[in-house]
């Protein structure tokens, strides 16, 4: 591991939250601005000082508010509620390499309309309003409720389920967790389906984890973690992956934009050919406890299908996997790669950092098959 260089970071961030009736939600604005001085001669310590927020970022947040509210105006006549978050941030670093910076401006949220499935939206890397889309939109809202989830049935994961693999692979390959990681002794081995390729991509433009330099001023690089089923890389300090939740926090090794490459399978063929399976629309949250091989997730709406026919659903389900078993059960990688328009927040040691996530549909075989 390389030592963290002496550096200074200046952060400006505006977070705007809107919640309530779609026609007139309540708005809350929070600002954060300050500078951190880190000294490598005093490992793990820094001096911090608060500053006044940058009015330019405040204005940018209001512009984003007008953009997204304008895009949602066509729903105003419907009975519904809105949960919207807007983030405008800029970080300037003065390091041994000279002054560098990273910026992000975006929005994401959930629209709930009576009688319909929740609609999650965000912006693409051009700032345009984009909705999560999937076959669940055509399935009835009123149907039998599933009481349990049978682990012996296959799981068909939508492109909005990358969180499962971020927990199983991403966190387990972070530098400080490698010593007790279930993947520690498997570098160079084939550990999963031959089409699964996973990368950390801070170099992609316009997403929540995009940056040219990390939060201590080190240049970033694209890192392939799994290549065609083989474990080939990890996240360490040399790769520009030191991030922090705010200028008051110490930097940690963190993922940026978590990307699963498209495969060759047609997900529609899975939908209609599997005798019985579950379709998971998206994943709300995930957890991997360092030093273990256990991953837990909470899904969004999960549907039971019989050869593509809708048979029932649950609003959410809590599922648990082991790392090796999950990777061994992957049965196919879809060709429908999609960047999730929603910003994901990755939690680690009480620090949450925003990240982008993109994936295709993925088939996970049942536990008994």
Plain-language structure description:
The structure is a single chain. The protein is mostly beta strands and 369 residues long. It has two domains: 7-133, no CATH class; 155-364, no CATH class. Helix content is 10%, strand content 40%. The protein has four helices and 25 strands. The strands form five sheets. A seven-stranded antiparallel β-sheet has the order 3-2-1-4-5-6-7, covered by helices on one side. A hairpin with a 2-residue loop joins strand 4 (80-95) and strand 5 (98-113). The longest helix has 17 residues, at 55-71. The mean pLDDT is 92.
Summarize the structure.
By secondary structure, this protein is mainly beta.
Would you tell me the overall average pLDDT? Answer: 92
Radius of gyration: 21 Å
Q: What share of the residues does DSSP label as strand, in percent?
A: 35-45%
Please mark out the parts with pLDDT under 50 across 5 or more consecutive residues, or reply none.
none
- Give me the number of helical elements: 4
N- to C-terminal distance = 41 Å
**SS content category:** mainly beta
How many strand elements? 25
SSE sequence, one letter per element: EEEHEEEEEHEEEEEEHEEEEEEHEEEEE
Side-by-side strand order of the widest sheet: 3-2-1-4-5-6-7
The multimeric state of the shown protein is single chain
Estimate the helix proportion, in percent.
10-25%
Q: How many discrete structural domains?
A: 2
Shape: globular
How many strands, what sense, and barrel or not for the largest sheet?
7 strands, antiparallel
């Amino acid at each position: 591991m390389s030592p963290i260089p002496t550096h200074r970071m200046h952060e400006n961030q505006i977070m705007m939250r809107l919640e309530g009736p779609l026609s007139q939600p309540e708005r809350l604005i929070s600002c954060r601005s300050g500078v951190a001085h880190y000294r490598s001669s005093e490992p793990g310590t820094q001096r911090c000082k608060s500053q006044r927020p940058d009015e330019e970022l405040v204005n940018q947040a209001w512009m984003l508010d007008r953009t997204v509210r304008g895009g949602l105006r066509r729903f105003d006549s419907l009975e519904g509620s809105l949960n919207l978050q807007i983030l405008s941030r800029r970080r300037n670093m003065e390091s041994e390499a000279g002054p560098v910076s990273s910026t992000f401006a975006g929005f994401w949220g959930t629209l709930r309309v009576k009688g319909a499935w929740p609609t999650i939206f965000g912006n693409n890397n051009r700032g345009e309003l984009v909705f999560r889309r999937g076959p669940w939109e055509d399935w009835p809202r009123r149907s039998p409720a599933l009481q349990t989830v049978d682990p012996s049935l296959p799981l068909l994961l939508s492109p909005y389920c990358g969180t499962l693999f971020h927990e199983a692979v991403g966190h387990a390959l972070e530098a400080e967790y490698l010593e007790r990681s279930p993947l520690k002794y498997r570098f160079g081995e084939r550990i999963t389906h031959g089409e699964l390729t996973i990368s950390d991509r801070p170099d992609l433009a316009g997403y929540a984890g995009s940056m040219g330099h990390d939060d201590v001023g080190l240049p970033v690089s694209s890192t392939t973690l799994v290549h065609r089923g083989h474990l080939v890389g990890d996240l360490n300090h040399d790769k520009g992956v030191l991030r922090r939740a705010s200028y008051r926090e110490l930097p940690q090794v963190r993922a940026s934009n978590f990307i699963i490459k498209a495969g060759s399978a047609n997900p529609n063929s899975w939908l209609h050919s599997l005798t019985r399976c579950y379709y998971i629309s998206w994943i709300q949250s995930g957890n991997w406890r360092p030093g273990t091989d256990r991953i837990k997730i909470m899904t969004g709406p999960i549907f039971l299908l019989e050869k593509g026919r809708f048979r029932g659903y649950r609003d959410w389900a809590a599922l648990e996997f082991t790392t090796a078993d999950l990777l061994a059960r992957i049965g196919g990688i879809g060709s429908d790669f999609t960047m999730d328009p929603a910003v994901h927040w990755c939690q680690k040691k009480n620090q949450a950092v925003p990240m982008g996530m993109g994936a295709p549909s993925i088939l996970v075989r049942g536990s008994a098959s």
